[in-house]
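Lecture notes, unit on protein representations.

Consider one protein chain, 292 amino acids long.
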Amino acid sequence: MSSIRIAVFPVAGLGTRFLPATKAIAKEMLTVVDKPLIQYATEEAVAAGMDTLVFIVGRTKNAIIDHYDKAYELETELSLRNKDAILKMVQEVVPSSVNCVFIRQSEALGLGHAVLCAEPAVGNEPFAVLLPDDLIYNKGGASCIQQMVEVYDEKQASIIGTQTVAITDSDKYGMVAGPKLADNLARVDEIVEKPSPAEAPSDQAVVGRYILTPGIFNKLRTTERGAGNEIQLTDAIAELRKTEEIFAYSFEGRRFDCGSKIGYLEANVEIALQHDEMADDFKQYLKNLNLD
């Protein structure tokens, strides 16, 4: 079992950037090649040894709940038709050893509030937070959250996943700064939510992977609304840093911002090109594609 047992998935957002596609379905159920975004994130957590998945959902996210529930009619029909391989795939969306917990976020008050909603399921232990919009792909290597668990095991402190971005994009991210301890590890001395390029403390941006100590909950309870009039997780982490060490980890792997249309398209193309079943056919299609 992993030292981090619980993974939290804040999935209550409205997905307005993908309307009208997300008018009736959750944005996390949009597929990249052959799996929904949320499944990439849960597979990442399960592969890192986590056995409890906590979903913070909104009123319109029933499709996510259904995806992780048993589908009696579908499974019976597949069994009767001897579709054993497909049946196995459906039944293993989440392993039987993994528990799924669904908590409703009654109001859309921001990422910080969504994480706070998970407290009854998390209790007094460290936990991971994965944002499915950030699809992080490291085919053949350790997943992003697995890499971060290994750092947590050494440091026994909160770990934030980061990557280098253009300073001109700093107002799209939480930004961190602090002394480097290794090529891919730094201590967090400063963290700011969506600063202007002129005020960005560095070019290191927070992406959607966190390992947090339970001390974050007390900070979230007293965090006032910040950027976007929402309770920002970044602001609570800044307060936690005053009492605990926090580290930034620059992960190995390719991050796709699937909260944006271009990032979503890039993910579909690049992951299809690495897909075990369709890579060769897709490469041939791209070679023959006439863009004139």
